[in-house]
Amino acid sequence: MRTGIWLVGARGSVATTTVVGAAALRAGLLPATGCVSALECFRDLPLPGFEELVFGGHDVVTTPLAKRAGQLAETGVLPSGLPDLVAAELAAADAEIRPAPHTQGPAGRTAADAVAADLTGFRERHGLDRVVVVNVSSTQPPARPHPAHAGLGLLYAALDDGERVLPDSALYAFAALESGCAFVDFTPSTGARLPALDELARRRGLPYTGSDGKTGETLVKSVLAPMFAQRALRVRSWSGTNLLGGGDGATLADPASAASKTDSKALVLEGVLGHPVDGGVHIHNVPELGEWKTAWDHITFEGFLGVRMSLQFTWQGCDSALAAPLVLDLARFTALAHRAGVAGPVPQLGFFFKDPVGTGEHGLQAQYTLLVDWARGLGDAVSGARER
Q1: Cβ distance 318 to 291 under 8 Å?
Q2: Structural domains in the chain plus CATH codes
């Protein structure tokens, strides 16, 4: 099942690590550590194999993938020497990266049509069974409400009139769905989460999922918060301080862009605990950290007879190395959903997100159980249809 993965932000750190990682797995150079879809319980499912994945994308950056991969190897994000071993695969993916259309200004429909044409050309050139568009670009501020967001007819009319009614992430989602591609938003940006785009996905019989990949601090929260709730310990405060550099740090130094991220990071606590807690999430740009990030969380909670206690944890990691295997997982699972005829939001992929579409479940174990049952059910349905 030849599957295209079209990366929005294709020359960024996450995208580059994803392409290098897929090539390394395809060649058997390294194990699939961190890839959920490679776990034993999923191995007999009709997911697209790593050798069946073809990469392309859009970006405003022109730095070749090979050079970007070399830079990541120098900083320890990629194993030394690995970019040279997969140079041919990097060159092939680089040849399929297109300049991002001019998405600012009033000509939103023109830009959407250009994206759709690139996606269609990509699918036809490589004889792909399907394409999954994955947004791994920089976080954008929340979308400003517009009447055209309410329904597909209103959206078409506004775009045909030359109005710029969609933020960039939603414009890519629109173009993906218009051209018959599934859509994954790994960022907290708007993406497909507008009523008009939900309607479009259902009409076209296409799955979409997101938002904001759960890679570090929030992953730990989604394990610890259910522990407090199930142990009947009342959390009084939960304060998280995030230090990060690189492109994410620079982007999130802008309060408007950071608002999308802090909102999604806060959802798990109230969703699991059932009540708001003091503290909040604080993000600081530390350029010196580069591709690495640190999160320090301080939790106060109340036990039997009102006794106050506390817990602290520190999470340190490389965001690209944490995110890239999940991008591969999401593309593979979403391709399976598309093949099985799933249309609209896919809440069963909430395991991978801070702010999952279509579900209020935030506990990691419950999300994992839902993912396994759903994926195996899809696998049985696809295999049964193939046998008939």
Answers
A1: yes
A2: 3-212+321-387 (3.40.50.720), 217-318 (3.30.360.10)
